[in-house]
Design a protein that fits this description.
Layout lengths: L1 E8 L6 H17 L4 E3 L19 H18 L2 E10 L5 E8 L5 E6 L5 E3 L5 E3 L12 E4 L2 E5 L8 H9 L4 E3 L6 H19 L2 E4 L3 E3 L5 E3 L3 E3 L5 E4 L6 E8 H10 L13
Parallel strand pairs: 1-2, 2-3, 9-10, 10-11
Antiparallel strand pairs: 1-16, 3-4, 4-5, 6-7, 8-9, 11-14, 12-13, 14-15
Helix pairs in contact: 1-2
Length: 272
């Protein structure tokens, strides 16, 4: 099976309705170019790190966002991955949640980010997602018209065991939507993505946020799609808004796994 996949790169607004309109315009443009599977970045409905502004992602908006994404997928007849949207859960913190809709607009899978970004990068750049978000506790493998997709979000990319488990259970494609910081993006983004593709002989589909945001952060951009041999086959080579499309071929997954059957060599070792 072959199909066209698109990655959307955005600079998400702080206001959810504006953010949706910007996103929908890019999704429709990618669809016009033939994309059948379209993936958007982390924080597609709102990119805001100030906990006091979480009123903007109250449960009422959450219900509205689900229906808007569903209607967009159904309108275009596409499989649509909202890389993540931020939702406030009543009485709790927010969640950072991937949403996967089929061509009929049905929500077929959702995944809450397991590994929260709690880091101190120096120079006053400290980010503590756990102060505002509840971590997920389940890995998600989704069945789609195009095959099995393993879902993840941003910081998850540093935890290789998650992707190995997803692929050993049938994943042919791995989605890694992100809002990478500029320092970590320059140093690690491409390397980590290519490593996840190579070690699992799987496609990696990685849409990202890019540019300077209203809350003061700057994200790296450089969205990309990588084939199972580790080659970049679609790339937005800056931090500007846009999209890129690549053809995905199931046989490339099978071929890479035949050439280097690394999973058959797993062994248990004892430490002295």
């Amino acid at each position: 099976m072959k199909f066209k996949a698109a990655i959307i790169q955005t600079n998400t607004a702080n206001e959810p309705v504006e953010a949706f309109n910007q996103l929908a315009e890019l999704v429709r443009a990618a669809h016009k170019k033939g994309a059948q599977f379209i993936a958007t970045p982390e924080g597609s409905n709102l990119l805001e790190r100030d906990p006091e502004k979480f009123a903007q992602i109250c449960p009422k908006w959450g219900e509205s966002a689900y229906s808007k994404y569903s209607e967009l997928a159904k309108e275009l007849g596409i499989t649509l991955l909202i890389g993540s949207a931020l939702f406030k859960i009543e009485g709790q913190k927010a969640v950072n949640r991937s949403l996967l809709f089929d061509k009929n607009g049905a929500l077929i899978a959702q995944y809450d980010k397991i590994h929260l970004f709690d880091v101190n990068l120096g120079n006053g750049m400290e980010l503590m997602e756990s102060r505002s978000y509840e971590a997920g506790n389940r890995a998600i493998l989704a069945d789609t018209d195009f095959g099995k997709i393993g879902l993840s979000i941003c910081y998850d990319v540093r935890f290789a065991e998650l992707y190995r488990m997803l692929c050993q259970n049938g994943a042919q494609f791995l989605t890694i939507p992100a809002a990478f910081t500029v320092p970590t993006g320059r140093a690690h983004w491409e390397t980590l993505l290519r490593a996840r593709a190579i070690e699992n002989s799987a496609y990696v589909i990685a849409p990202a946020q890019g540019g300077m945001h209203k809350d003061g952060r700057q994200t790296f951009g450089h969205s990309m799609i990588i084939n199972p041999w580790g080659e970049i086959i679609a790339h937005i080579d800056n931090d500007e808004t846009g999209f890129a499309i690549a053809q995905i071929d199931h046989e490339e997954v099978n071929e890479a796994r035949r050439k280097i059957p690394a999973w058959n060599l797993n062994k248990d070792f004892d430490l002295p």
